Structures are given as C-alpha cells and as structure tokens.
C-alpha cells in the first residue's frame, strides 16, 4: 500500500519532509545571496561612492522591485504548471545574478544585478508554499512552514559568517585578477563565491523533486477543474477584504522590522561599537542562527499548538504574541551602551520577530482555495516586500541622512522606525484575529454547501 493510500496517522511523510528540506536549503541560498550585501556596506560604499540612502536602494528597492511584482505572474504559473521546474529555474537565475553583482563597476550596474536576484527569488516561496499545502494535512503545515522558513535565518547567519570569513581572508588583498573577468575587489569576489554554487542546487531540485497532486480543487458541473484567473483571486481577496487588509498590512509591517534589522544591524554595530566587518559578521551570524532559527521553529510549533487547542485563528494569534514580544527589545537594543547587553536584547527581538514567517503563510494557505494559494501568497509577498524591503530599509536611511544628518545615529533611526512599526503591527494583527475567524467560518460553510449540491 502506497503512502498516499495509508490512513493519516500511519503515513510516513519521509519524501514530503525531504522536499521541505530541499526547499529550505534553496531558501538558505537565497538569503545568503540577498543578505551578503549588508555586511559589505563600507567597502561597497567606498568603491562605488555611495550614500546610505543609495546603499539602501540597492539593499531594498532594487531587490524588492521585481521580486514583488514578478511574484504574481510566477505564482499564476505555479498554480497551473510544474512547481519544481519553476523553482529550479528561479534558483539558477538568482545565482547568476548574484555572481554578476560581483562584476559591478557602479551604482547602475549593481542596481540591475540586484533586480535580477529579486526576479529569480520570486519563484521560490509561492511555489514552495503551494506544494507544501498539497503534501501535508493542516495540523502539520505550521511545522512544514517553520522548517522551510528556518532557511531564511540559516541563510542570513551564513551570509554574516561566510561574509565575515571571506572578508577576513581577503583583508590584505586589495584586488584579485580573474581569468576572463579581470581585476576585482575582495567584496566583488565574495559575490562570485556565494553565487555560483546555487547552479548545482537548481539541478538537484530539477532531478529529485516531483510535483505533488493538487488537493481540494474546485470543479465545474461537468467534472472539469475550474480555471482561476487573476481577477478571481482579487475577487476572493475582496470578499474577505477586512481579513486580508489586517493580515497583509500587519505581517508586512512585521516584515519591515525583521528585514530592516537584518539589513541595518551590521552598520549599527560597526559604527556604534567600532567592530570590524568580520567581528560584526561572526557575532550577528550567531545571533541570527540561534535566536531567529529557534524563533521560527517555535513560531511554527505555536501555530500547530494553538490549532490543536481549537483556536481557528491560530496563525494570526501566534503573530500577535510574537509582535508583543518584540516591541520593547527592538526599541532598546540600540539604546544601551554595552555591546553584550545590546546583543542579548537584539537576540530577544530577533526571536519574536521570526514568528510571522510560518504564521502568515499558514493563515493564507488555510483560508485560500487550492487553485489560488500561490497567487494569494504572491499578492502578500508583493505588499510585504515593498513595505518590508523597499520602504523599511530606506526609511531608516532617510531618517539617518535627513533627520539626524549623522551616519553614527543609525541606531536611533532603527529604534524610532521599527519601534513605531512594532506597535502598529500588534494593533493590526489583534484586529485581524476576529476577521480571520469569520472568514474561515464563511469559507467552510461555502465548502459544505458545494459538497451538498450533488446529493440533493
């Protein structure tokens, strides 16, 4: 008897967890390629003659611009075509774009390369989320999304640690001559080193991951599967507009805090405590790996625990708990004068800041019909990344450059922007819990009515 025919309690899920782990590794690679830039802020600013605001555009807007908007057409494909193929093409594309970042000679070149990284990475999460919802029952989705989301923090930690190691290794090297490429700086070589191995991972996904059968599809009266256009997705979102407004805006501001801290904490510790890039990379790598890694797993476990206890709004409720927990430490970690006290507060903030990754995803997948799950996720990622990456990183830079006029005041900018965002996040997600419960009840009633029609 195959696993597909076994009762739920006896099913092994070995292959399904393998797919989750492979996708998690892809997420690791994506965050290394995305995050490595923030550690090399000072040499890149120096060699390309950039301000904090220009650097924030590379770190935020350039990446998020097409990462956000390409998510929708790619998600439309993911709801209809082979999801592993889409993922493998995306991995190959962003890996090449990361390597090309290492060949940048100016702001415009780097901006275009970062756009390419965003386009490739847009293929991963909507397709992966959609596959997981077809491979696991609802009481395992929180853990599946939690393990997958862990890849972002392993990747963030690896970017800091590997970046710090490479920078230290090449600290006495001003430039390196490469065949066919010519002379490159140490930071440019770092991009080449972290980008090219992704091509092997793309091949692994293509060869070993198969597209799971789609569950819960809606059918026409003739038995055929209903086709879902983008207008149907927006109609569904509009029918639950209060729920998705609270979800999308609340978790987007949550992302603003998390992604902003990932982007700006290296600069803060380098400027405020006089750390080298290598020292900052090692310390922040440990914090991200321990605090964010445990936080995202705990967040996924908390979603499943609350669901087992009968809370239909479990995912939203977990988000509220995390947002409350991060508010005070996210304000305080930049305002203490002791390095170790600051790092402890940062670790607490990062632990709670990682809750929304499994929580926001589980909420969308539980509520959305199968044919539009990837597209609903892509709309969220569009809003979340425009707010979290483009707006969040740039707001801190603008406050630093225009309000304080001193790059050493980046810590105060972090406290001001992310402290306010944390408070608003709590309010939005708390309001969203009630809306989510009502939306879920409505969708369940509609499903029961559809199932009752043939029998009448």
Automatic annotation (TrEMBL):
<feature type="transmembrane region" description="Helical">
    <location>
        <begin position="85"/>
        <end position="104"/>
    </location>
</feature>
<keyword id="KW-0813">Transport</keyword>
<feature type="domain" description="Major facilitator superfamily (MFS) profile">
    <location>
        <begin position="19"/>
        <end position="437"/>
    </location>
</feature>
<keyword id="KW-1133">Transmembrane helix</keyword>
<feature type="transmembrane region" description="Helical">
    <location>
        <begin position="187"/>
        <end position="209"/>
    </location>
</feature>
<feature type="transmembrane region" description="Helical">
    <location>
        <begin position="17"/>
        <end position="37"/>
    </location>
</feature>
<feature type="transmembrane region" description="Helical">
    <location>
        <begin position="410"/>
        <end position="430"/>
    </location>
</feature>
<dbReference type="Pfam" id="PF07690">
    <property type="entry name" value="MFS_1"/>
</dbReference>
<dbReference type="InterPro" id="IPR011701">
    <property type="entry name" value="MFS"/>
</dbReference>
<keyword id="KW-0472">Membrane</keyword>
<dbReference type="InterPro" id="IPR044770">
    <property type="entry name" value="MFS_spinster-like"/>
</dbReference>
<protein>
    <submittedName>
        <fullName>MFS transporter</fullName>
    </submittedName>
</protein>
<dbReference type="InterPro" id="IPR036259">
    <property type="entry name" value="MFS_trans_sf"/>
</dbReference>
<keyword id="KW-0812">Transmembrane</keyword>
<feature type="transmembrane region" description="Helical">
    <location>
        <begin position="144"/>
        <end position="167"/>
    </location>
</feature>
<dbReference type="InterPro" id="IPR020846">
    <property type="entry name" value="MFS_dom"/>
</dbReference>
<feature type="transmembrane region" description="Helical">
    <location>
        <begin position="339"/>
        <end position="357"/>
    </location>
</feature>
<feature type="transmembrane region" description="Helical">
    <location>
        <begin position="248"/>
        <end position="270"/>
    </location>
</feature>
<feature type="transmembrane region" description="Helical">
    <location>
        <begin position="57"/>
        <end position="78"/>
    </location>
</feature>
<dbReference type="GO" id="GO:0005886">
    <property type="term" value="C:plasma membrane"/>
</dbReference>
<feature type="transmembrane region" description="Helical">
    <location>
        <begin position="315"/>
        <end position="333"/>
    </location>
</feature>
<dbReference type="GO" id="GO:0022857">
    <property type="term" value="F:transmembrane transporter activity"/>
</dbReference>
<feature type="transmembrane region" description="Helical">
    <location>
        <begin position="282"/>
        <end position="303"/>
    </location>
</feature>
<feature type="transmembrane region" description="Helical">
    <location>
        <begin position="378"/>
        <end position="398"/>
    </location>
</feature>
């Amino acid at each position: 008897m195959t696993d597909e025919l076994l009762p739920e309690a006896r099913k092994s899920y070995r292959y399904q967890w393998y797919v989750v782990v492979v996708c998690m590794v892809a997420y690791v690679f994506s965050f290394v390629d995305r995050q490595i830039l923030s550690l090399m802020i000072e040499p890149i600013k120096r060699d390309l003659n950039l301000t904090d605001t220009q650097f924030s555009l590379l770190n935020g807007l350039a990446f998020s611009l097409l990462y956000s908007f390409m998510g929708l057409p790619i998600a439309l494909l993911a709801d209809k075509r082979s999801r592993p193929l889409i993922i493998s093409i995306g991995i190959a594309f962003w890996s090449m774009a990361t390597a090309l970042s290492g060949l940048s000679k100016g702001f415009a070149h780097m901006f275009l390369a970062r756009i390419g990284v965003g386009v490739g990475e847009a293929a991963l999460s909507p397709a992966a989320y959609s596959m997981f919802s077809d491979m696991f029952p609802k009481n395992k989705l929180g853990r599946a999304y939690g393990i997958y989301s862990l890849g972002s923090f392993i990747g963030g930690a690896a970017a800091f640690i590997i970046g710090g190691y490479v920078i230290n290794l090449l600290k006495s090297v001003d430039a390196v001559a490469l065949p066919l490429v010519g002379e490159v700086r140490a930071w440019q070589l770092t991009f080449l080193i972290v980008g090219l191995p992704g091509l092997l991972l793309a091949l692994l996904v293509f060869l070993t991951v198969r597209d799971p059968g789609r569950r819960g599809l809606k059918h026409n009266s003739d038995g055929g599967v209903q086709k879902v256009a983008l207008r149907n997705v927006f109609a569904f979102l509009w029918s639950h507009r209060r729920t998705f407004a609270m979800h999308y805006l609340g978790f987007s501001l949550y992302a603003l805090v998390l992604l902003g801290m990932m982007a700006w904490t290296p600069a803060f510790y380098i400027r405020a405590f006089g750390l080298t890039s290598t020292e900052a990379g090692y310390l922040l790598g440990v914090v991200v790996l321990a605090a964010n890694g445990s936080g995202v797993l705990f967040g996924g476990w908390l979603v499943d625990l609350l669901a087992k206890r009968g809370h239909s709004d479990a995912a939203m409720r977990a988000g509220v708990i995390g947002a409350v927990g991060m508010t005070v430490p996210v304000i305080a970690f930049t305002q203490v004068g002791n390095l170790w006290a600051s790092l402890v507060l940062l670790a607490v903030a990062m632990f709670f800041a990682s809750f929304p990754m499994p929580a926001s995803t589980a909420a969308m997948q539980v509520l959305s019909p199968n044919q539009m799950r990837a597209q609903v996720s892509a709309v969220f990622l569009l809003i979340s990344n425009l707010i979290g990456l483009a707006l969040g990183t740039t707001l801190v830079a603008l406050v630093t450059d225009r309000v304080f006029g001193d790059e050493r005041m980046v810590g105060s900018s972090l406290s001001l922007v992310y402290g306010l965002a944390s408070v608003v996040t709590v309010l939005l997600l708390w309001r969203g819990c009630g809306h989510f419960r009502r939306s879920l009840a409505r969708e369940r009633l509609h499903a029961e009515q559809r199932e009752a029609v043939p029998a009448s």
